[in-house]
Write a structure and sequence with these properties.
Elements: E1 2-10, E2 16-25, E3 30-34, H1 41-48, E4 56-61, E5 64-65, H2 74-78, E6 81-85, H3 96-106, H4 111-124, H5 140-152, E7 158-162, H6 170-185, E8 189-193, H7 197-203, E9 206-211, E10 214-218
Parallel strand pairs: 3-8, 3-9, 6-7, 7-8
Antiparallel strand pairs: 1-2, 1-4, 4-5, 9-10
Helix pairs in contact: 3-4, 3-5, 5-6
The chain binds adenosine-5'-diphosphate (ADP) and magnesium ion.
Length: about 230
């Protein structure tokens, strides 16, 4: 599903965010990405979503070689992905329902499909009663469940979550990861960045640790790398 071959990223100001990273993630895996602030975790995810392009190396996502992807093809790549952010990024003027419906309209879904799908997705995250609320009327945990519903509504093959529990209290963050787990069991590949060791410990999934731009530990092979 995802292949990084000797990938490096140097930002235009000279910061080297990733150094010679190689990694393979299979379809259907659930991977926690951990590491200190500034280690390169978000950069790693942004290279997958094509928000940033690598300075060196090759990245394959699905069947796509990202270095060969034209700018105009990026929206098509993103259709296979759902993204969840630490700061939720909901549209404050829209209701919960409309936030999710909007994500479907953007990719050309019909009104009929939207009417059928949105209630189903809301029930999946247990927010059917909040459909007509605005984001400010919800708790952090509820807002993040809306974020998750929006990420899932177009049935992505890959779910990318950058510290999705960073603004949610600890007990609710277990609920969020529980949901990600259920989604993963239905076949979606999940990559999640987190700082919370309690989550990583509890859920017992593959853990990739990034330090100073390099992968220093990967529980799938227990082989430390120091490039
Ligand atoms: N757009 C950018 N321009 C320049 N430097 C950046 C940019 N984004 C991130 N960085 C730097 O790259 C390094 C890795 O950042 P990031 O991937 O955001 O780390 P993490 O998500 O692990 O906290 C940091 O030193 C950060 O300051
Ligand atoms: Mg980050």
């Amino acid at each position: 599903m995802i292949e990084f071959q000797n990938v490096s990223k140097v930002y235009s100001n000279g910061t080297q965010a990733l150094k010679n990273v190689s990694l393979h993630v299979d379809t259907g895996e659930f991977v926690f990405i951990v590491g200190q602030s500034g280690a390169g975790k978000s950069t790693f995810l942004k290279l997958i979503t094509c928000e940033e392009r690598p300075t060196a190396g090759e990245i394959v996502v699905g069947e796509q070689k990202l270095t060969q992807l034209k700018r105009s093809e990026i929206p098509y790549l993103r259709r296979m992905m759902g993204m969840v952010f630490q700061d939720f990024r909901l549209i404050s003027k829209m209701t919960v329902y409309d936030n999710i419906a909007f994500a479907m309209h953007v990719v050309g879904a019909s009104s009929r499909e939207v009417r059928k799908r949105v209630p189903y997705i809301l029930s999946l995250v247990d927010l059917q009663d909040k459909a007509q609320c605005h984001p400010r009327e919800l708790s952090g945990g509820e807002q993040q469940r809306v974020g998750l519903a929006r990420a899932l509504v177009n049935n992505p093959r890959l779910l990318i979550a950058d510290e999705p529990t960073g603004n949610v209290d600890p007990t609710l963050s277990f609920e969020i990861v529980d949901l990600l787990n259920q989604i993963n069991k239905r076949g979606t590949t999940v990559l999640m960045v987190t700082h919370q060791h309690s989550l990583v410990k509890h859920f017992q999934r593959r853990v990739v640790e990034i330090k100073n731009g390099s992968i220093v530990a990967d529980s799938c092979n227990w082989e430390a790398r120091h490039d």
